[in-house]
Design brief:
The protein is mainly α. The protein has helices at 2-31, 36-40, 45-71, 79-91, 101-113, 117-133, 135-146, 153-178, 180-188, 194-219, 224-241, 243-249, 256-269, 281-290, 296-328, 332-341. The longest helix is centred in the C-terminal third of the chain and has 33 residues, at 296-328. It is found in: Cell membrane.
């Protein structure tokens, strides 16, 4: 299992690098003009430093509200574990849809706080739910100040894709967790062997554990959940603010609100991008949406800086932390999966 996963990650990393290099090359070929080099003399290092500080604050607040969330159902999580969870998960978004990050994050929750598969799943589910709850806060602002963005074909098509993907995922999860006995009976129709039925029993048991842990969030974490949500809002505000200091750093003075709204739209539209790390799509989407805020001769430079601070840096840090985990933890992902299965 470990070797298969690592082969997949390495393959996705290679694809990511190829698409990223190709995208950046095309961007620079089409945007660099004779005005680009003189404009680069106006770069302000102070604002680029501010961009770095902004993304570091984002990482810090991400780890903080994760630790508060875990605290709602278990003990206090270590900062190292939270960093591995957040940045390791960012690195594994190289595998589309984050499928490789979920086992890693579950393993970290089990290693740090002894949570079972179902309990870890409830933490991941609640984390996704709180992030989703930010949408009703930001969408009215986006619609009021930037409604024309949804008339663009690129945004409209990805929005439809996003809604269908999220909707199907929520529907399957809700139907599967409403009645575990009925879910078990349905899965038994496809599980003919004793081993297959044992797996079904294990899955339905973890669904029950997940439901029980979700109830604990509202019993033991009455004030911790709102606190986690508030810190999550601060974290996302840092991330949405990020393009502004980058634009200021290359000598521009864009409207703060419009810049943040553009980042909000891109953040959610790229969430389920089908390419490794949203490579290619992110660069193309950034080119289309940030074009009104940045002159064309600087647009390619801005996109490279924007992707570096908002994604490449997180991937680099996540890769370093994962390499450290592999060197320190000799059990690896295969043993992690085994320990999770034996946790109960």
């Amino acid at each position: 299992m470990q070797k298969l996963d690592m082969r997949l990650v390495r393959r996705m990393l290679r694809i990511f690098l190829i698409i990223t290099v190709a995208s950046i090359t095309l961007l620079l070929l089409f945007t660099v003009t004779k005005d680009t080099l003189p404009s680069l003399t106006k770069i302000n290092p102070f604002y680029l430093l501010l961009a770095l500080i902004t993304i570091l604050f984002y990482i810090w607040f991400e780890t903080l509200w994760l630790r508060i969330l875990v605290w709602s159902v278990s003990g206090w999580m270590s900062l190292t574990g939270a960093m591995e969870f957040i940045l390791g998960g960012s690195f594994l978004t190289l595998v589309p849809f984050g499928v490789a990050g979920v086992p890693l994050q579950m393993y970290i929750l089990h290693r740090e706080n002894g949570l079972s598969i179902g309990e870890s799943g409830s933490v991941l589910l609640m984390r996704s739910l709180l992030l989703t709850l930010i949408l009703p806060v930001v969408l009215p602002i986006v619609y009021i100040y930037y409604s024309t963005i949804f008339q663009q074909g690129f945004v409209l098509n990805i929005s439809r894709y996003l809604l269908v993907a999220v909707g199907l995922g929520i529907l399957i999860l809700v139907l599967g967790s409403l009645n575990t006995d009925r879910t078990r009976g349905f899965l038994y129709r496809f599980a003919k062997s004793k081993k297959a039925r044992g797996i079904v029993d294990r899955v339905t048991k973890e669904i029950f554990n997940m439901k029980s842990t979700l109830r604990q969030f509202f019993v033991r974490g009455k004030w911790k959940l709102p606190l986690a949500f508030l810190v999550a809002c601060v974290s996302r505000a840092c991330f949405f603010f990020l393009p502004y200091p980058i634009l200021r750093g290359i000598g521009l003075s864009p409207p703060v609100l419009q810049t943040m709204i553009t980042q909000i739209i891109l953040s959610y539209l790229l969430l389920f991008a089908p390419t490794p790390g949203a490579s290619g799509i992110a660069e193309g989407g950034g080119f289309l949406l940030f074009k009104p805020l940045c002159p064309e001769h600087l647009l390619g430079i801005f996109i490279v800086l924007w992707r570096f601070f908002s994604y490449y840096l997180l991937v680099i840090l996540g890769g370093i932390l994962l390499a450290r985990m592999v060197s320190v933890d000799k059990l690896g992902m295969e043993e992690a999966e085994k320990s999770l299965l034996d946790a109960d």
